[in-house]
Sequence to fold (140 residues):
Amino acid sequence: MAYWLIKSEPDAWSWDMQVKKGAKGELWSGVRNHTAKLNLMKMKKGDRAFFYHSNVGKEIVGVVEVVREHHPDPTAETGDPWVVVDVAAREPLRKPVTLETIKAEPKLKDMALLRQSRLSVQPVTDAEWKLICKMGGVKG
DNA sequence: GCCAACGTTGGC
DNA sequence: GCCAACGTTGGC
Fold:
């Protein structure tokens, strides 16, 4: 199983809104960056991702599961190559892990979140995943 | 094919 | 509100 981190501005799409969609999940739409798109296309059903609130909060607030693999983004112009996956909320972090906390943890200094701050869909290593789950008080 | 200009993201 | 990072566009 692979692990990921997906970012959303809570004003546009928040964890609470994701939770309301339940087990059926919701399209992760609007990705317009090729690196992010490639990551979406690598996601498999059952993969997990951290749900990160950018701009407001700047913290990982929950864990989602990929419930449908990539398919065309209905919000894209016809003929454009953008894709979505469907993700469903799995569990909230008992204690959100903030960007500040991640920066303060030497083991997490190589996270894409810090290295490529603008990438909205990014991979997370097994070690990073386990550590953040522990910090956040979730099984993952 | 290079690079300046410009737009967007996202932290501060 | 500012600015760094970085992607895209368009002139040459």
User: Anything to note?
Assistant: The domain at 3-136 of chain A is CATH 3.10.590.10 (ph1033 like fold).
